[in-house]
Amino acid sequence: MPPITASEIRAHCRTRPGAGEDFPFGPEVLACKVGGRIFALLFLSASPLAINLKCDPLRAAQLRQYYSAIRPGYHMNKRHWNTVVLDGSIPPEVFFSLIDDSYALVVAGLPKAARPPAPPSQGETP
User: Are 76 and 52 contacting, i.e. CB atoms less than 8 angstroms apart?
Assistant: First the structure.
């Protein structure tokens, strides 16, 4: 499978309600934020690309055991953050679901007044 590109990641992150981008650590690290809080840190100069994503601690440990490309979060709280190296070993649907999970965890931690409005429900996903 072809590698996931920075453009694809940015496009996916932008589809999350209230999401924005920032470069608070310089031009090499893109921060995707919601409510002023980071839900993804994309290391643009890494080869292969790497991204930090928030994760439930139990799931983070499971993912690290299953995928060698998922490691404790670089420069982050290693219990709550994973670094995902985009070496092609993680299926795109799994990778993009990790972004969605990170976003949802950050939104859940925001004060209610700072949360973006929920998108209209389209029914349950399988």
Answer: yes
Cα separation, 65 vs 71, in Å, equals 9
Q: How many domains does the chain have?
A: 1
Residue 126 has pLDDT above 50, yes or no: no
pLDDT score at 2: 73
The dihedral sign for the CA sequence 114, 116, 101, 83: negative
Residue 81 belongs to a domain with what CATH number? 3.90.1150.30
Q: Is the peptide bond before 48 cis (omega within 30 degrees of 0)?
A: yes
Tens digits of residue pLDDT in 81-122? 999 999 999 999 999 999 999 999 999 999 888 888 766 555
DSSP secondary structure string for all residues of 65-126 = HH-TTEEEPTTS-TTTEEEEE-SS-S-HHHHHHHHHHHHHHHHHHS-GGGSPPPPPP-----
For the whole model, what pTM was predicted? Answer: 0.88
Backbone angles phi, psi at 13, to 5 degrees: -60, -40
Most distant pair of Cα atoms in the chain: their distance: 41
